Amino acid sequence: MTRAMQVANRACYKLVTDMLYEARIQAIIDYKSRIEKVKNNKGPARDIRLNREQYLQVNTELFLNQLRSILHVIT
In this structure, is the dihedral angle defined by the CA atoms of residues 8, 14, 27 and 60, taken in order, positive or negative? Predict the structure, then answer.
C-alpha cells in the first residue's frame, strides 16, 4: 500500500469514528431536550449513556443520512 493510501485510510477511519461519537453525543442531547425536557450540552452529555429504547426514541435519521453521504463520498 502506498504511503498516500495509508494516510487516507487512517484519516477515513478516524473520521467515521469521530462521527459515530458525535452522533451519540447529539442523540443524548436531543433525548434530554425532547423527551425529558432538560437542557443539556456536550460536557455533561459525554458522561451519560442511553439504553436501546431511549436511543430509538430519538430521531436518528438525520445522523444516518449524514453518515451515508460521507461513506458514499469515500467509496
Answer: positive
Distance CA 19, CA 39 (A): 22
Q: How far apart are CA 13 and CA 38, in angstroms?
A: 33
Say if residues 63 and 23 touch (Cβ distance below 8 Å): yes
Q: How do residues 7-33 score in pLDDT, each as one tens digit?
A: 988 998 998 899 889 889 989 998 999
Task: Give the containing element (helix H, strand E) for 53.
Answer: helix 52-57
Query: What region does 30 belong to: left with phi over 0, alpha with psi -120 to 50, or beta?
Result: alpha
Distance of CA 54 to the CA centre of its chain: 15
